[in-house]
Amino acid sequence: MESSTEVEVMTMARCWLCGGQEHDLVKAGSVPNALDGAAFRITDSSYGISAPVYRCRSCGFRQCHDLRSVLPYYAAMEDPAYETSRAPRALQARKLVEQLRPFHASGRLLDIGAGSGILVEEAARLGYAAEGIDPSVWLAARAAERGLKVYCGVLPGEVAGPFDLVTLVDVIEHVSDPVELLRQARAMLAPGGIGLVITPDVASLAARMMGARWWHYRIAHICYFDRRTLCDALKRADLAPVRIFRPSWFFSLDYLLDRLAVYAPPARMAKGAWATLDHGAAQSLRFSGRDLQEGLIGPTPLLPPRREPDRTAALPPR
Ligand SMILES: [Zn+2]
């Protein structure tokens, strides 16, 4: 059994940001034994259920290193509920693209983790030459049905840069090498290009108040950033934050009440009432409540590549 120690050393977890090997368990895991693609749906509402979350003693980053090989689950994932909530998600996507317009009013846009192409579609409506990439075969097929250019796979795949705008909306918290994902995003940026990263903020007021029941604790989320660790990740990928903001978020009322029913059973009754009374008129609801917004929207830097034209030019053609 001389190999047991060796195996233990080899599987010792390293921090996905700084490489540190000392972690503290900050949230116990509650993942079912048998996992399938359903647990990785965008619309999964098993809030508070996650793999064990560890915090790095060196840099403070929180990760779920017991659950790192998640890509096959995304490839197999189907999510019909995501498609039925397309309208409010489209509104949200449009608002996000509008945030980028002051930097590039036209040009090429790449949405990484594009799902069924909701942001790609909105960006195209705003005049951008928009493309996306997503590992889910099912979601990429939905995009194709709408005539949208969403490649099935992960970067670099078939994607040919460079792009003026690159977006990562609720994606970085799903991968076990977030810095590498940011580097890949950077490699897709044209000189002067700009990126957008959105991820839940584990230091938000909502996260702190809700503790282990926070709605962003999900099986599919294996990275938990706060503003500092996200900026740290950007720096390690040779990117710099330009602006951090918390955009508005949109949900259909019945979708939202369905989500909230996880916490408060009476909301499920209200859902029926609302849906019956005025389903059509209550299509979208904008939140300005700061607590809720902070929980739903993470730190959101706009990030350009550092001005190093030589290195950008040295990137191999794709
Ligand atoms: Zn670390």
Helix content: 25-40%
Distinct small molecules bound, one entry per kind: zinc ion
* Estimated radius of gyration: 20 Å
CATH C-level label of the largest domain: Alpha Beta
- Let me know the number of strands: 13
Structure in a nutshell:
With 318 residues, this protein is of the alpha/beta class.
What do these coordinates show?
This protein is of the alpha/beta class. The protein has 2 domains: 278 residues, Rossmann fold, CATH 3.40.50; 36 residues, no CATH class. It has 13 helices and 13 strands. Strands 6-5-4-7-8-13-10 form a 7-stranded mixed β-sheet. Helix 7 links the parallel strand 7 and strand 8. The chain is globular, with a radius of gyration of 20 Å. It binds zinc ion (ZN). The site of zinc ion has 8 residues, from loops.
Secondary structure layout plus pairing:
Blueprint: H1 3-10, E1 23-27, E2 53-56, E3 62-63, H2 71-75, H3 80-84, H4 86-100, E4 108-112, H5 118-125, E5 129-134, H6 137-145, E6 150-152, E7 163-169, H7 178-188, E8 189-198, H8 205-210, E9 223-224, H9 227-236, E10 243-244, E11 250-251, H10 253-260, H11 266-278, E12 285-286, H12 290-296, E13 301-303, H13 309-313
Parallel strand pairs: 4-5, 4-7, 5-6, 7-8
Antiparallel strand pairs: 1-2, 2-3, 3-9, 8-13, 10-13, 11-12
Helix pairs in contact: 4-5, 10-11
Zinc ion binds next to loops.
